[in-house]
Amino acid sequence: MKRYKVTHIMNKKQIGLILVAGLFCAGANAQVMLAGENKINTEAGTPVSGDIFEATGEIGAFIARQDRYFVRFELSSSKATFATVPTLTIALDSVTPNIAGTVTANRVEGGIGKSFVVMSIDTTDADITSDVEWTLDALSLSLKSEDDVDITYKLYSTSAGATGPKPGTPAFSSDDELIRFVNATSMKGEATTATANIDVGASSEKFENDTITTPIMEINILNTDGDQVAIGVDGAAINVDVGDDDLTLETIVDEIKLVVEGNFEAVKEDTVTKEEGKVWLDENKECSTPVGNAAVGKLAYDKDDVNKSTATIVIANEGNSDAETDGTYLGDIEEAYLCITTNGTSIPESSYEGTLTMTVIDPYEAIDEDTFDGSMLQKNTVAVYENFLLTPEGVFTNMVRVTNTSNIEASNIMVTVFNDEGDNVEFPLSAIEFEMNDGTMGNVSPNLKGGASTPLIDINDLYAAATDEDESFSAIDSNDDGKVDGKLRVKVEANVRADSLDIQALTLSRDNEFFLVY
To answer: How far apart are alpha carbons 313 and 414 in whole angstroms?
Structure first.
């Protein structure tokens, strides 16, 4: 899937790092998950700290009493450094039976401003067995990127092995995840397909497969569950006042609004309902299960340009929202689809752009907005144009011919005729009648075999088919003299291989002394 800008939630008063702690084996280190909406300062660094930043594990080797070993902790990302020297505690009472004695740990190298720290382990009157546990707590880090951070524990018998730019081979080592960035609350949108094909064989009034409904956008709401707490810039835990619930969309978000710009002329109704001519949010690509009443779109049209029409959908939160729109549960719109149903008119080719915004409760605020491209509506066809045809019933004989230059059949051939005023009428090629060689009348075939051409179609027959389809269509010029003296343009569309449809026009003088092909 393509990724777009994501709209997030953050606390107005704090950085608002959203953390999720969990235990892992292989050292039993605590994994901290930082919400992806955190704004990390890439220059000065963002401090993160707290009890949740605690790494634990086992010594991993036997250390005799009154001996000294060295431990090296390394952070996997150079963009993560220690803000303070952490505290290393060796728990001699972590094994049974308890071992008497004391252990001290002191910094030898690294620490503040570095991605590693080396500490000595000094014993007095106790042996340290390999299964004794250690804890690295009071961790305070500075992050300059959203890189994942792992932590590595290495045990050395000498200071020379643990220190310096090239540490030696440790007696024991282990590693585990420490920090992972995830999106705790987010939303995004994208196109469901590159194009939604309009079927020219259905007079452009339907999509392929004889349907009048298609999805044009996919909307995803990401909602991470878990015991979530917040850590402030000073390292102190913040009690997030959302009742007994987790910090999720339902407890923070009032409403999410989707505004879509594009040409909705074929969807247009005075009042948009769940009948023909609508736009709505659905649970699946089949557009068969609407999310709810709140997800029915309201259309607004630019009076001067239908291409600037917009559809607005508001999804409200039943628990928080004061919106006038009927509420619907936010958790129901993950992987939802924006669908349109057309109203029986010709569907124009169009592209769509969506914008997602959200409104949240205090003391939170939404940052950014997600703007993305939706699917395009495009005819499943190749089109050719002849932009100058003579006047019907004029002094010259004017004819057109369509040729399929490919080796496969061209099907569902449609003709659109335009007059000088820009009016147009569309009809199948088979609607055109012409006089055959035996003097009888026949209709032009709606299909063309590979390499075949239509007969020469007289402009008078073309004009007759246009006026039969729409009696109001006229080639009368704008001088209003009532005479048919305007010119025509024609577009021919077909389902055929790209660049393999051609159109020619031929003009013949009445006295047959010359002709012109163009």
So the answer is: 36
